[in-house]
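Our preliminary data section would be incomplete without showing what the modeling component actually yields. Below, a chain of 72 amino acids is followed by its predicted structure, encoded as tokens that our downstream tools consume directly.
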Amino acid sequence: MRPFALMWFLAFILRLITRTDIWVLIPFCFIWVVASLLRFHIARVYNITENGDCGEFLIAFCCLPCSVSQSK
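Predicted structure:
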């Protein structure tokens, strides 16, 4: 929770400095990367190989709720 809160704080400060809203994407990208890495870890631990690496990436990228619900 702390890294996520730090990302929001950093995005807020950068938004105030630059006066653009692009910095709001920092927390989103952080969560997406963490979710993708978690999906790859779960596929490796439980030996889920029918989708391959590309399939696991697409599951993590396109359907985060599906990816989290399959994590046991």
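DSSP finds four helices and no strands in the chain. The chain has a mean pLDDT of 77. Preliminary results of this kind motivate Aim 1 of the renewal.
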